Amino acid sequence: MLDLLTSHASVRKYKDEPISDETFHKMLHAAQHAASSNFAQAYSVIQVKDPVKRDKLAELSKNRKQYDSAALALVFCADLRRLGHAAALHGKKILGGTAENFLVAVIDTALFAQNFVVAAESRGYGICYIGGVRNNPEPISELLELPDLVIPLFGMTVGVPAEKNEVKPRLPIEAILHEDTYDENKYDKILKEYDSVMEEYYRNRSANSKSNGWTDVMAAFLSEPRRTFMLDFLQSKGFLKIE
Amino acid sequence: MLDLLTSHASVRKYKDEPISDETFHKMLHAAQHAASSNFAQAYSVIQVKDPVKRDKLAELSKNRKQYDSAALALVFCADLRRLGHAAALHGKKILGGTAENFLVAVIDTALFAQNFVVAAESRGYGICYIGGVRNNPEPISELLELPDLVIPLFGMTVGVPAEKNEVKPRLPIEAILHEDTYDENKYDKILKEYDSVMEEYYRNRSANSKSNGWTDVMAAFLSEPRRTFMLDFLQSKGFLKIE
Predict the structure, then answer these.
(1) C-alpha span between A72 and A47 (Å, rounded)
(2) Domains of chain B with CATH codes
(3) Which end of chain A, N or C, is less surrounded by CB atoms within 10 Å?
(4) Residue of B77, B179, B219 with shortest CB distance to A92
(5) What is the per-residue pLDDT across B113-170, written as a single tens digit (0 to 9) for each?
(6) What is the ipTM of this complex?
């Protein structure tokens, strides 16, 4: 089982083999057994089957390659909307806009999604998370007719792998694990060593060989503004409002 | 494997059996292979060993029972701080305060945590997520000396189960799965049926039998203000700031 987890790498090209509804639903059902904050189950999945919508989704998320060949094209949504319906059955309204409830929905969705990934990979399928869905959350919300309090958090493609990336070396345990108190004094040394590991990995990998480490890529990734519309978008959908 | 996922239920009482560092680190290493947005790996785990700190954590998260008997007491943190160090090695600063980067860190942490749960459960351990860590995020941050851009997202206890809850029936697939467009018209019927299922479950379960459904519990849970300090707390740690 640990070997299965450790062998994860994104799959961006799939064989032309479908996944039956029965198999898909079995994997979803297993995934739903992830823990959920106060059992709110604050997530939804949109399965995009319509070829026109799928094409549009691929374009809007800037991930044409993945979506073109995948057996399943999914969008995972953080969802307080259904809970609003639950509350309305008792004449109540939910407080959608609090940061705490936003966290509940985002974390619930991510735990569920990762459980789904494990389910799918245990059956021999490959997957790719599509963070690119957050490049155009507003048009994608319109495309999928997502109401307030439902936001596309990430997409996912699933299918039988036609090719698979090599597994990337992760940060060493001591970088992510702290005992009793957070210790940042250790980072500079650890990160420089990790850069050497990643440089070797990037230089030697079979596809997209390049001469980067890790810290330089992260510095570039996180020092430039990205998706600066996100807070406005979230608030336009009813999340993260001051109540 | 699907059976393993489907058998998940929180464990709140553990046998007095330790988990070796070797085993813990193996499970963490496997967990790190969860996908990560642009490979940022924006998470940290604090393992709380010091009995005084552990006692304080149990009190602050209002989960004494879990923390008292668990082999491992963990706090999972969304962490952009380490990425700040990575950027500083290249004379750059990261944009910590954007909603997008906040999402990156929260989702990364949750995917990693859920992978860890699967790893632990595959080895026969039980776990319990402790959302209660968000009852007192500021004092817990002080206790664990978390700097800016590191926030305690949830805790977790891990150990050999002494008792285990029964598995709760999840929402039916059709409640969480939508085809091409989001369909909320179906909810009222589905949720009423689910209430019957949950009523039967709660009535018949061996511990904490009660006469609730699901929608009534959710209505109560989400219509009252909870953790209203959360947005202020997040912003005080450098997240979700208008840049």
Answers:
(1) 7
(2) 2-166+225-236 (3.40.109.10)
(3) C
(4) B219
(5) 999 999 999 999 999 999 999 999 999 999 999 999 999 999 999 999 999 889 999 9
(6) 0.98
